[in-house]
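hi!! sorry for the late reply, been swamped w classes. u asked for the two structures so here they r. pasted raw, havent cleaned anything up. first the sequence of the first protein and right below it the tokens
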Amino acid sequence: MTRRVSPTEAIRTEIDAVFAEGRPLADCLEDVARLGARLIIQSALEAEVEEFLGRARYQRTDAVTAQDDDGGGEEPAGQAGPVVRTGHRNGHRQATIKTTSGPVTVARPRLRGTTEKFASRLFGTSVTRTNALESLVIASFVRGLSTRDVQNTLAEALGSDAALSKSTVSNICQSIRGEYDAWRERDLSTITLDYLFIDASHFRMHPNAPAEPVPAAWGIDTDGRPVFIGLEAAGSESHDAWADFLKNLLDRGLVPPLLVISDGGAGLISACELVLGRSLRQRCLVHKSRNVMSKVSLHDQDQVKKGFWEIFDTSELGLPPGQRLVETVQRRIDDLATRWEKTYPAAVKSLLTDRSSLTAYLRFPAEHHKRIRHSNFIERTFGETRRRVKVIGRFPGETSCVSLAFAVLSRAASGWRGFTTTPATARQLERMRRDLLHPTDAEVIHLAPRPRVSLTKAA
């Protein structure tokens, strides 16, 4: 007989279905936030029932008793075994909690055959509303990594009747922390990336301290699938901090990618040159555009911005990816610089700084160009994280901060679109991989030390 799906598993399935709908990421995250609140409350309710009965779902009373008997000897002092009660689960009934973001419906468990009445500490007898939904999603789900924080937050949100026991809160929090810990230590040797995107967002994590960066890395593998591979807290965006972040990925078995896409931070650029020196490097065009526009008056910004993006519009050139296309776009950069160098010399200087990295993407398959020329994709997800953080002002520590980012990004990753990979595309990328990452012995001799100009060599 097939077992019924538990309410928590049903909610997780709903979350996966949201990302499978193909809607804009921001819309998906709003729905996931509501489902996340349901998941928190539902998990707490089911943990309460398990604690009350003294056994897990589908576990019989005699099985628990036998398990206890197999241990042999007496319980250590102060560690009494679970209280096993008679009775059994008898389905659920719907209960609605009103929130400032709309009603949240959960399945309250029903029990039969118990000698003692079960009363949920989460709901108490009359709790039917919560504070802001974000209070549950952020404070319970993330600050909840501290048992005391979860207890205090739920008490504030739902009243004194919501004082969950330490064991219930601990089980929920340990599950969240364990998921992140296992993810950040997992082996990456089975992943081969064509493209690696790197970015960071800043959050306040420590008292009386400015916002600190949280670097993230994700990529597209050789099958065109998106892969979320790295997330850590860092004290700064210095060369050493970024180098440690990237080296950790390689130490866990990650094969260097063909192309690294990032912003223009000096520490990140130098770290990429050190750790991923054989990979090509693409400067994020969105970040470069912002840098240039910040040095142009409002009166001319529309015109300069239009000219900037026209540089990289290659749809009518009729040139295949490669050196000729790169040279053509580089001439366009010169033309725009010549046009504005007298009016906005600072903007032109910004445009020409690290200019070779603006066209590295033009060596790759044309159908990938619009998605590998910037690292802006993950910023939308980071923006959602920052918006929710405003509810609590700052995190109580690095673990809580990184766990929130992981909770949002890892779930969002299941809805990221991959790349189309045709046989011709795969052959082109494989040739580039051989030339860049697996040179002949003769090439190795001539590439030590390897000059930076080689980052823009033809594929």
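now the second protein. again sequence first, tokens right under
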Amino acid sequence: MDARENTGNRLGDIEITDPKAMRALAHPVRLAILERLQRHGPATATQLSPQVGATPSVTSWHLRHLAGFGLVRDAEGGTDRRERRWEAVARGFRFQMPEDAEGASAARALGWEMFARAAELPERWATETEPRLEPAWRRVAKLADTRIVVSADELAAIDDAIEAVLAPYVMRDPAERPPETRDVRLLRYALPEAAEGSAEGPDA
């Protein structure tokens, strides 16, 4: 079973459309594995194990589960089956909220797990990283909480415009990066408010 519908978006993300794949990824160890492979490249279960908080055998099981949904695969050049090397199939992933109840529930579970995983990042950055930044990097670090009033189509257009700005930096060859570049984490949340008077719950 393959999680992908296409990878035609600007950022080269894998598009997850299968609710079963969403539920498979809605697990802290599997999310950690996929993130590690996407950021650091191919690795074995033994190499990933201490980074994702699972034993090598459990990590290997999760890798095979992810492979069953087309999210990871055997890395090129890996010939030793005793130390199988894995790689992510794409540099990132994305999914949309399906309209059917099963799909919406699966997407919601994955979204919650992603929120939980990202929740500690700002605090850890503020306490551990920001104090060690050089002044030039400290000046360009941003925290914004902006409220806008838009239609659903306008919000989609805003998201598309943001991706158009990011794409050249995401997709460029490492050899083309200027000197003194470093990793920067951009956390993007688009959180529409409920309509006034709406009493619908998450499963309505």
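hope this helps!! also noticed smth abt the second:
Residues 115 and 149 are 23 Å apart (CA to CA).
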